[in-house]
């Protein structure tokens, strides 16, 4: 197959797993989809491809707009989308980053083996569910005042270190060491701060979760050893973001940008792509607010990490240090960063927008933590509750092919509404239990929305990433127990 027709949009095969929509009309660059034919058929079922075409209209976009193999329809910009936009003469687009700013994942290692957990699954899942706030609305591990929130917005995981919720190695193994220095708490609205005040240290709802897992497959022993991972090892995956604070930041600036930059908006095919010109007051203010929300999300995941360590101490009767519950890495999914990349005109500073995509830098890049600089950045790809997840390594081709990015997960196949119509939460829970996966959530509806059949095949998503060289397989992990909002 050399072309693929998707309801009037024709994609041309550039090479294996790379499909291109040539520029037409107001498209400034081509659009590229990284997918196998199987995944491309799934991606074509919703508005993902049209949204990707729309994104190519953004001023200053370089090379091409990209859809990762887990891509699906989002708001304005597709989930799984990546765009590198000129940071001097282009723009920054809140909708192309997402409402849940710095939704991301982190993995904790342990020295436990699967046999240490077997027989304690129910005790462990009940204890985690009791200790870690989940679901919509308020309730967090830290109930702070406005000053607490502002300190978190300013300092990120450094604040956790000062308050006793983190150790130095947590910072060393977090993207950007857990702090965006460009954060501007003053650019975050009072309403956003109030929404975050009682949500510090909470999973939230939707697809966010905490999952205890075991390493079942090792694909690259050298890099697995560098990451401290081995077969049979128990690990913990935490997936959440900036909660209501991040959502409010995105909403606030979308509305302000729509009003202040209506001329630019009129040139874009979707108002959800509303963008502020680089160098404008709103572009600078949004970037500062977004970086502050990024810090807040890192604090959120760090507080959950702290509480998780406490739960493991209680359940297994040993200190978390004796259990060697060290952070492997923390990666962001919804984010824009100023990064330097090679484009047609040479090296250029770009706003790299990643919406439902993971940074995947290879060895040698200065942004990779020192512990991993010789092998490449860990990339964590969560799958469904029934399929397991992967740890990859930043691929050697990623800088040339994808602005140093790869997929962020399995990617949804169906909406939450459709999922609740097709699945019954208790049935899903029972089926998973038969597979020795213990799941606990606020409601059966939450489990139905996140049923394994709701997601694409994570093995296929990772295969494409690995074969493209943008994220190389290191280990595969499978679920033991899972808590959800």
UniProtKB/TrEMBL annotation:
<dbReference type="GO" id="GO:0046872">
    <property type="term" value="F:metal ion binding"/>
</dbReference>
<feature type="binding site">
    <location>
        <begin position="333"/>
        <end position="334"/>
    </location>
    <ligand>
        <name>GMP</name>
    </ligand>
</feature>
<feature type="binding site">
    <location>
        <begin position="207"/>
        <end position="211"/>
    </location>
    <ligand>
        <name>GMP</name>
    </ligand>
</feature>
<feature type="binding site">
    <location>
        <position position="100"/>
    </location>
    <ligand>
        <name>Mn(2+) 1</name>
    </ligand>
</feature>
<protein>
    <recommendedName>
        <fullName>tRNA-splicing ligase RtcB</fullName>
        <ecNumber>6.5.1.-</ecNumber>
    </recommendedName>
</protein>
<feature type="region of interest" description="Disordered">
    <location>
        <begin position="176"/>
        <end position="203"/>
    </location>
</feature>
<feature type="binding site">
    <location>
        <position position="333"/>
    </location>
    <ligand>
        <name>Mn(2+) 2</name>
    </ligand>
</feature>
<dbReference type="GO" id="GO:0170057">
    <property type="term" value="F:RNA ligase (GTP) activity"/>
</dbReference>
<dbReference type="Pfam" id="PF01139">
    <property type="entry name" value="RtcB"/>
</dbReference>
<keyword id="KW-0436">Ligase</keyword>
<keyword id="KW-0479">Metal-binding</keyword>
<feature type="binding site">
    <location>
        <begin position="382"/>
        <end position="385"/>
    </location>
    <ligand>
        <name>GMP</name>
    </ligand>
</feature>
<feature type="binding site">
    <location>
        <position position="239"/>
    </location>
    <ligand>
        <name>Mn(2+) 2</name>
    </ligand>
</feature>
<dbReference type="GO" id="GO:0006388">
    <property type="term" value="P:tRNA splicing, via endonucleolytic cleavage and ligation"/>
</dbReference>
<feature type="binding site">
    <location>
        <begin position="408"/>
        <end position="411"/>
    </location>
    <ligand>
        <name>GMP</name>
    </ligand>
</feature>
<feature type="binding site">
    <location>
        <position position="389"/>
    </location>
    <ligand>
        <name>GMP</name>
    </ligand>
</feature>
<dbReference type="GO" id="GO:0003972">
    <property type="term" value="F:RNA ligase (ATP) activity"/>
</dbReference>
<keyword id="KW-0342">GTP-binding</keyword>
<dbReference type="GO" id="GO:0005525">
    <property type="term" value="F:GTP binding"/>
</dbReference>
<keyword id="KW-0547">Nucleotide-binding</keyword>
<feature type="binding site">
    <location>
        <position position="208"/>
    </location>
    <ligand>
        <name>Mn(2+) 1</name>
    </ligand>
</feature>
<keyword id="KW-0464">Manganese</keyword>
<comment type="subunit">
    <text>Monomer.</text>
</comment>
<dbReference type="InterPro" id="IPR036025">
    <property type="entry name" value="RtcB-like_sf"/>
</dbReference>
<comment type="function">
    <text>Essential for tRNA splicing and maturation. Acts by directly joining spliced tRNA halves to mature-sized tRNAs. Joins RNA with 2',3'-cyclic-phosphate or 3'-phosphate ends to RNA with 5'-hydroxy ends.</text>
</comment>
<feature type="binding site">
    <location>
        <position position="484"/>
    </location>
    <ligand>
        <name>GMP</name>
    </ligand>
</feature>
<feature type="active site" description="GMP-histidine intermediate">
    <location>
        <position position="408"/>
    </location>
</feature>
<comment type="similarity">
    <text>Belongs to the RtcB family.</text>
</comment>
<dbReference type="InterPro" id="IPR001233">
    <property type="entry name" value="RtcB"/>
</dbReference>
